[in-house]
Design goal:
- The chain is an alpha/beta fold.
- The chain has 2 domains: about 1-20 and about 70-110 and about 160-244, Rossmann fold (3-Layer(aba) Sandwich), CATH 3.40.50; about 20-65 and about 110-155, SIR2/SIRT2 'Small Domain' (2-Layer Sandwich), CATH 3.30.1600.
- It is about 35% helix and about 15% strand.
- The chain is built from 10 helices and 9 strands.
- The chain has helices at about 30, 35-40, 40-45, 50-60, 70-80, 95-100, 130-135, 165-175, 195-200, 230-240, and strands at about 5-10, 85-90, 105-110, 110-120, 125, 150-155, 180-185, 205-210, 220-225.
- A 6-stranded parallel sheet has the order 3-2-1-7-8-9, with helices on both faces.
- Helix 5 packs parallel to helix 10 (about 230-240) and helix 8 runs parallel beside helix 9 (about 195-200).
- The radius of gyration is 18 Å and the shape is elongated.
- Bound molecules: zinc ion (ZN).
- The site of zinc ion (ZN) has 8 residues, from loops.
Length: about 240
Amino acid sequence: MGKPLVAILSGAGVSTDSGIPDYRGPNGLWRRDPDAEKLVTYEYYMGDPEIRRRSWRMRRESGALRARPNAAHRAVAELEAAGVPVRVITQNVDGLHQRAGLPDRKVLELHGTAHGVVCTRCHVRGSMEEALARIEAGEEDPPCRECGGVLKPATVMFGERLDPVVLGDAVAVSKACEVFVAVGTSLQVQPAAGLAGVAADHGARLIIVNAEPTPYDELADEVVREPIGTALPRLLRDLREGAV
Ligand code: ZN
């Protein structure tokens, strides 16, 4: 028998050890500050150039793009490197799973990526690094270089839909996997949270690693409350060795 396909749904809690706070969860920073939430809400962003200028400034000043992967990201990359088929479905936009060494094709970014930008008119993509260099050089709201359209971070803003292709792939992975690990997520935001239910309905072993209770705890085969930085590496090592 081959190694079981492991799906890992990772939320904000996986990146807090890397110094990235929970911005967009139900109790996240943006939800608690309506003014800040406007900067990442599609309607305001598109409708108000001042919101866009503030949004770019916020991105330039935040150190999020310079964050380093932590023990949890490394443990996931090591699981994959050990030959276990792994797919990561992440609610994070920080790219830290890939930075830890996980190949791009193994990561489904439900909320997009903070490392990229996209034109809202012609949909051409570019790098955030390049966009921030334009801010640094004095442009306050840099337009698309191809068509002059409004440029935005390649993250899914409030009021925007998840990419249906990415979501479809995430559902397929959740149905196919044999082990589904939900880690660092409160499982309160749909449709991401529902993936845990999809996996369980299709016979996967459901493991939840989160400090706080989640609505899916009763459905889980195992619930781990210990800190992610130690609990996840131990759990994935056991999976690798076939002990789970
Ligand atoms: Zn364009």
